[in-house]
Specification:
By secondary structure, the protein is an alpha/beta fold. The chain has a single domain, classed as Response regulator (Rossmann fold). The protein has helices at residues 13-25, 43-51, 66-71, 80-85, 110-143; strands spanning 2-7, 30-35, 74-77, 94-97. A four-stranded parallel beta sheet has the order 2-1-3-4.
């Protein structure tokens, strides 16, 4: 199963989702993330994932390509902009939307901003666990 997480800039939410899916998905999943644009990696996203034991520092902030869409079996958009601007998917590619707020837009003290990133990280983790569980369950039903 090839999973593609898509957001506007591929700097926070999709990067965290990719990291969680790589860690939690096991051998049955190949994972990438991309953006409608490429904004570079967000250091706070890297830091909060590192706190949770997931190193996303080597992941690239990439722009979506037609080859990525062809590769993907399942596309998850993690923001409204990406959902609205997602190109037409190839036949058979499944899509799901997660309306996640952007932690990079958080304001306040550094600790308040980091708390927003942590909440986002934990929310994304739960969503990735749910997605992987659903996909594994579907696969098990198909092979039974």
């Amino acid at each position: 199963m090839n999973l593609l997480f898509l957001c506007t800039g591929n700097s926070c939410r999709s990067q965290m989702a990719e990291g969680w899916a790589r860690q939690l998905g096991g051998d049955g999943f190949q994972v990438q993330s991309a953006g409608i644009e490429s904004h570079g990696k967000n250091p706070r996203a890297i830091a909060v994932m590192q706190e949770a034991g997931v190193d996303i520092s080597a992941q690239d902030s990439t722009r979506l390509t037609p080859a990525m869409l062809e590769w993907a079996d399942y596309v998850v958009t993690v923001c409204g902009h990406a959902d609205e601007h997602c190109p037409l998917l190839p036949a058979g590619t499944r899509k799901e939307h997660w309306p996640l707020s952007d932690p990079a837009k958080a304001s306040g003290t550094e600790e308040e901003i980091m708390q927003t990133f942590r909440k986002s990280r934990d929310n994304i983790r739960l969503r990735v666990i749910d997605l992987i569980d659903r996909l594994k369950h579907e696969e098990a039903k198909e092979t039974a």
